Amino acid sequence: MLSQMRSLAKYVWVLVALAFVGGFLLYETSGLIGRSPVTPSTAVAVVNGHEIPYQTYLNRVQNETQSEQQRDGRSLSQDDNRRIENDVFDQMVTDILLQQEYARRGIGVTDDELREFAQYAPPPWITSAPELQTDGQFDADKYRRLLASPEAREGGLLVSLEQYYRSEIPREKLFDQVASGVYVTDAELWRSWRDQHDSAQVSFVAFTPSSDSVAAGAISDDDLRAYFDQHKSEFGGPGQAAMTVVMIRRHITAADTAAARQRALSLRDQIEKGAKFEDIAKTASADTASGANGGDLGTGGRGRFVPAFENAAYALKVGEVSQPVLTQFGFHLIRVDKRKGDTLSLRHILIPIQPSDSESARMDREADELAKLAASSEDGAKIDSAARELGLPEHHVDAIENQPAVLNGQVIPSVSAWAFGGATVGETSELFQDDDGYYLARLDTLHQGGTPSFDDVKNEVRERLTTARQVDKLVAVAQQFAERAAGTSLEAAAQQAHKQVQHSPMFNRASLVPGLGQFTEPIGAAFALPVGAVSAPIKTDAGVYVERVDRRVLADSSAWLAQKAQQRTARLQQLRQQKVQNFLEDMRSAAKIDDRRKQINAATRHAEA
After folding, report:
1. pLDDT of res. 609
2. How confident is residue 436, by pLDDT bands cut at 50, 70 and 90?
3. CB under 8 Å to 197, separation ≥6 — which residues?
4. May I ask the CATH architecture of the domain 254-351?
5. Going by DSSP bridges, is the β-strand pair 325-327/240-249 parallel, antiparallel, or unpaired?
6. pLDDT value at position 73?
7. pTM (2 d.p.)
8. So where are the chain's domains?
9. What is 200-214+456-553's CATH topology?
């Protein structure tokens, strides 16, 4: 029992140690002492008058960062760091808002509730602890014996549980209050069933605007501004940046691939001669997260892995070690430990395909030269001259705030987080690196998120208003067409008008239909029009449609009745979750939140310059 307690306690104390060390190192190295107006007690945000200390925020970020690094077994890009920062910030804001809501509603936790939850509702980190498992399942009797033991108090388990429940029980009480009164009628269930199981097939003619139908100059600035004022909320969104990026990519040759495969074959030979698969995985696998556990990938069904890996795994017998299996990650040696139907317990060893030492050395030299010539410069022209001198192409890349930058479908790490992290237009980044190469970026333009000014989106406003006016004019054209089609046929009217009749597949109300989109007016009309009738013009934002319902199949009411109870349970759960989510969103939108992270980042950057 004592060994069980020690094993559980290590999770608690490791996190405490990481928080202290991480916070101390950040405090010492982040430029917060004497070199900047930013101090550990500076508020990173103020939420309804409640301050979040910068140092507390940094400690939480550091804890999450180290946890993710240890879990994934890899270094993190600035994009990863930005995602973690945002997640931590959002959680801290939500925690404060929830605490304020608990106080407003008088929600608390009694000692009796703590004891009851501890006995009968253990947290996930308890139910997943290996020491409390029997035959792969959580053993409640082992857990209760542990709770009653002296080690539970002396090792800090009871304190950890109390902290957990003092956070979770009020949350559960609040959400129960928020979701109380949720009810679903039979009529709602039947309507939902019909939405999924009624189906239709239509023929239609589309009248869509052309780019030259109306001269853009025909719209006055007054009209544009009036349209913008009326639709201002539609133009808001995340920040956007345009960058120039210079890359030095790793080049993998056939010889590199052959060397990695030979390395995998050599390891397989060692295993066949008696070496333990688990030991080889711990020392040789590039997947350090699974490698630390002997290559263990857990237990599960199909769909967990890329096709090449999965096909090879399901072709193996239990205990058999595969030949080297090539995926985009490298070569894998796979072993199936257990199999039950389509459920496999797997281990693997990953050997990545890496460039030769000479190629790596060449890249490193070129990257060093690029960094010397242009990195971390406020003179944006330096990246142009460096690219010319080194014979490297420049790429123009657009980025959206809180999303990695992408070029031709490939992620360019860290440059997006850098651009929105306090960089100024014309500035050049430091040199970034990942497994695929090196990257240097210059920030060319930057538009902050939120509701933009009219001037920032004037061209987009012009395009939207131009399209809206063209669609309005097309309604009259479509009306004449619909009248002709009603008197003859859709096909005859289309032939006379030199238009094409398009035919949809069978679809339900939620389907994405080629040519009609999803959740659009023509899709809704397909379930209201009489079969065979030609519709009046159906106007959408994108165009005008005239359609005919060719076939409609109605849902089977007997099938609905057979599953109604299960449908009700699922729908109630969905409605409760939706109501809670709406409550949280409303609570946050109503709160006064002063997010000072960008100002603090800018101040720290200037202090370090």
Report:
1. 57
2. confident
3. 508, 555, 556, 559, 560
4. Roll (3.10)
5. unpaired
6. 65
7. 0.66
8. 2-179+594-608, 200-214+456-553, 240-250+359-447, 254-351
9. Chitinase A; domain 3 (3.10.50)
